[in-house]
Amino acid sequence: MIKVNKLEPQQYYIEHIKDKASYKEIDADVKNRIKLDMLGREQNHVCCYCEIEIKNIEDSHIDHVIPQSMLNQGVKLPSGKADPGGLDYKNFLVSCNHKDTCGCKKQNAYPEEFINPTIDDPKEYMAYNLFSGELKPIGDETKIPFEQTEKTLNLNNKRLITYRKNFIAQLYTYLSQPDAFIMFAKQYKEQPTLIQQFIEEML
Ligand SMILES: [Zn+2]
Hints:
Layout: H1 11-16, H2 28-41, E1 60-64, H3 68-71, E2 92-96, H4 102-106, E3 126-128, E4 135-137, H5 143-153, H6 158-172, H7 178-187, H8 192-202
The structure holds zinc ion.
């Protein structure tokens, strides 16, 4: 899970939503443009939750971090603003479309201690086991937010753990050649937090 530093919405989006009351009124081509913007400007082309590259925007969707169903019941955004129509750009993230994890698994859930990557830095709550590929809380005090978030997004499901385990095995092959590793890490889009942790712990 990456920390996403949300930028201000672009002018075309501000113009487009001027006469809109809710998210469902946004045109499909505008939604696609927002996805491309977010992937390019804020997420380095990866799903914010599983950190796998989104190569085709058709394989992704806009996730309301605080779900629309909660917003229209009056739950406020972290900024303190109400957003009953679910239009606030800073509450948007791009998630992959895997049915068993991430935004598709999350749907309308937002437990009380959910780690919100637009305001919280996930690294302060969780880290990878660099052998098994599992995510784990970094300490007792982060256990509850970690468990609530992991359960909501299913980040320790079998597919992701196997994928990360294989990826970590690939990283270990670079241990004897740190220069090649740095080159690889600079160019590789996927798993930025895992690569970062590997650099900090192993190199
Ligand atoms: Zn994902």
